[in-house]
Amino acid sequence: MAMASSSGQMKRLKPLYQLAVNNILAVVTVPLAVAVVMKVAEVGPEEVLARARSLQPLHMFLAAFVPAAATAVYLMLRPRAVYMVDYACFRTSPNCRVPFATFLEHSRVWPGFDERSVRFMTRLLERSGLGEETCLPYAQHYIPPSRDLESSRAEVELVVFSAIDDLLAKTSISPDDIDIVVVNCSLFAPTPSFTDMIINRYKLRKDVRNVHLSGMGCSAGLIAVGLARNLLQVAPMGAHALVVSTETITPNYYMGQERAMLLPNCLFRMGGAAVLLSTNGANARFRLARVVRTLTGAKDGAYHCVYQEEDDRGNVGINLSKDLMSIAGDALKANITAMGPLVLPASEQLLFALSFIARKVLSGRIKPYIPDFRTAFEHFCIHAGGRAVIDELQRSLTLSDEQVEASRMTLHRFGNTSSSSLWYELAYVEAKGRMRRGDRVWMIGFGSGFKCNSAAWECIRPASNAGGPWAACIHRYPVHIPDVLKH
Amino acid sequence: MVFDGEEAAHGHRLSTVVPSSVTGETNYELSDADLAFKLHYLRGVYYYAAGDVVRGLTTKALKDPMFPWLDAYHPVAGRVRRADDDLQAAPPRPYIKCNDCGVRIVEAKCDRALDDWLRDDAPDRLTHLCYDKVLGPELFFSPLLYVQITKFKCGGMALGFSWAHLIGDVASATSCFNIWAQILSGKKPDVSSLEPANTPRDHAPAGAPPPRSVKPVGPIEDHWLVPAGCAMACYSFHVTEPALRRLQQQLSHAGSFELISALLWQTVAKIRAPKEVNTVTVVKTDMSARSGKSLANEQTIGYVETGSSPSKTDVAELAALLSKSQAIETDAVAAFPGDVIIYGANLTFVDMEQVAAYGLELKGQRPAHVEYGMGGVGEEGAVLVQPDADGRGRFVTAVLPKDEIPSLRAALATTLLLRDA
């Protein structure tokens, strides 16, 4: 009884505590300022002026110059603010649609998959959280799927060019204004690169800085954003950076029978996003607050967690280790530890520090305090890597169902689109009309390496129209996703 | 010339098209009339001459309109399932689960020119251009429709449709394909709604004799193929308008269907002598008597019996029997509780004269030629009488035991059917 009432009292006190600690500067300076004013009033204005005139000119000069110089140096050394002008996701078309029944039938009809593999893929799909509208590229509607170079390029052109076309239309900038192009696509790296493809198609300028990131995994979208941000620091002020995140499915269909390597076939789907970043904040919709990258590849277990290799028969595929979830959990903890101090309000940080000290002093008899990230962010975009990933993150960050809704619904409608899934989730939040000016968004990506990267954005202006990849279906969402799909 | 190896279609590549929007949890109930036809497969081929239009019709251009087309015809993209909860019927009643699984598309090439192929009257020309599959042994994974796109060396193209008869008769199938062609040409056609079939009526009592038009078979488990007594082959020939007119003057003023059927009845009876062919089944499509449902099996089924041996009876008399003395058994066939074959139970004559097969215009181009055959025909054989390209002559496809084809060809060469004026 005493405990219940004391915890009830704690709950009531908590907002007061947060108000006090988060505004500590005001809490300290306001009384101080009041004290100064009262002192001045007490002493009298003529007395104050007399004391001021008695100061030496040098002291007065220094008193003015030093703070001004310090401010100027601080402003110059501060990194430039980077803004997101807008973003556009690849809008899937119905002629790429793969219903559950069709995927199963193709696996069954092609003799390369044995009975066990088909049963395994069936069970996976039933529990995957994917819906009936996810899309695969044209070449993968064949039995067996084509994996040739020409079909792969066709998929890239379809996804990347249509996303960029949408972006250019939304932002009304011309291709001549693009100074930097960064593309990430992990599993397909033809020569010439995707960036050269873009330069050729859109006739970009001769001095564009282009970089293609390949082999960096599903979290590479935020790595690309981080790289673009760094390039914008040294580019002329007001430069524009085009960041394209995608994954090419066509060449990567696994044609063997290793169960650990069949999972990507079932989950990965077609998707892509194009984002325009700039140091010019006019007309921008979001401000990039932070990018935090964490790597755990020094540990062997994490390094081998998502590993591309050949199976016994020479089929190339991606082997997912059984420890994936625990390694992901560790990577997330490392990322939160780095991100927390940068984004959490002072009240949460103090609580976390106190709990940390208390645990050390009392040898772990106190539960670790999980900082409430809802005080730092309004919206959460968690990489839709699979149902298990989202469940795990919801549990470890103590998020509500509504906060992970964007991730679950993106997994349902689009499947795992790798690095671009974060952008589809952001598009969901905006399509639902939940984004307001000043809202903060946390994007968390996971990928091979094992990497956990996150980015914090702040909304300046929510989307004004209802276009985008969710336009045709948002009215049907959210849907209830059963634990096991009946078919 | 025989269609063999590289001469025929080769290089098959399979893919699937699905409805463009999610159908959801829907089942399409099959009526008794539908289930009576479950062992038969319509095989129709549409030939298009080489030219700019056909050259512009890439596989993707042909596939893209199929996605919205299947939204309207979502049962065609479904798969056959058996009702789990029907504990009385054994085995449980089949229905179609509209799970959007899709239609199979087959792409093939042929190293001959289209005109060359059409001039060649070797048997089984049809089967090379239609993907030869049936429902089962895994009903879960058996498409109800296969569309084969065969490109000829000269640039011509053939579209071969392999359609499971249980989803609809030839009139339903042709109007279904015509809707696809209209979407391809940019129109937005109206499709009449897919009404669920009527609930099963009372079946005939278990011991009742089967209708004369059909032959009971079975029990058929999950592989819906007629148990083959002998190998069947398709043989097609053209009855030109002058030939038809001459026949009508010389033999009888009966309708073209009755006349051609009577002539073939006599010819086949002669080939099969001493075995008698006294009973024939007649299956007719009457467009005016249809209910207007998009997918239905609404052909009339009946039989005709002759007292004397048809090889010795006058053609005019046989034609008169066919037009006037048909015993209609459509309802009895639907009510019969077991599995039956209809085409080939007796020598079967199929009247397709009212079917608008030449309506499948691709971007304004009419097919140069259309021929329909049948898969899963019983040993007695079937004859399909169809309109020809200009509508005034007739095109006939005979599905008969392979051994009878040479005799048929020889007999037709000497009869009035093929001798020109």
Automatic annotation (TrEMBL), chain A:
InterPro entries per UniProt: 3-ktacl-CoA_syn, ACP_syn_III_C, FAE1_typ3_polyketide_synth
Keyword list, A-Z: Acyltransferase, Membrane, Transferase, Transmembrane, Transmembrane helix
Ranges for domain Beta-ketoacyl-[acyl-carrier-protein] synthase III C-terminal: 378-458
CDD domains: CHS_like
UniProt key word DNA repair: no
GO CC terms in record: membrane
Record's keyword annotation contains Transferase: yes
Coiled-coil region(s): none
Enzyme Commission number(s) of this protein: 2.3.1.-
Signal peptide segment: none
Gene Ontology terms, MF aspect: fatty acid elongase activity
Biological process annotations from GO: fatty acid biosynthetic process
Transmembrane segments: 20-38, 58-77, 211-232
Recorded metabolic or biological pathway in which this protein acts: Lipid metabolism; fatty acid biosynthesis
A Pfam family: ACP_syn_III_C
Domain FAE, chain residue ranges per copy: 74-361
PANTHER family to which the protein is assigned, alphabetical: 3-KETOACYL-COA SYNTHASE
Family to which the UniProt record says this protein belongs: Belongs to the thiolase-like superfamily. Chalcone/stilbene synthases family.
Designated name of the protein: 3-ketoacyl-CoA synthase
From TrEMBL, chain B:
Family that this chain belongs to: Belongs to the plant acyltransferase family.
Region: Disordered, residue numbers: 190-214
Protein name: Protein ECERIFERUM 26-like
Top-level taxon of the source organism: Eukaryota
Record key words, sorted: Acyltransferase, Transferase
Pfam families attached to this UniProt entry: Transferase (PF02458)
Classification lineage: Eukaryota, Viridiplantae, Streptophyta, Embryophyta, Tracheophyta
GO molecular function: acyltransferase activity, transferring groups other than amino-acyl groups
Classification via InterPro entries: Plant_Fungal_Acyltransferase
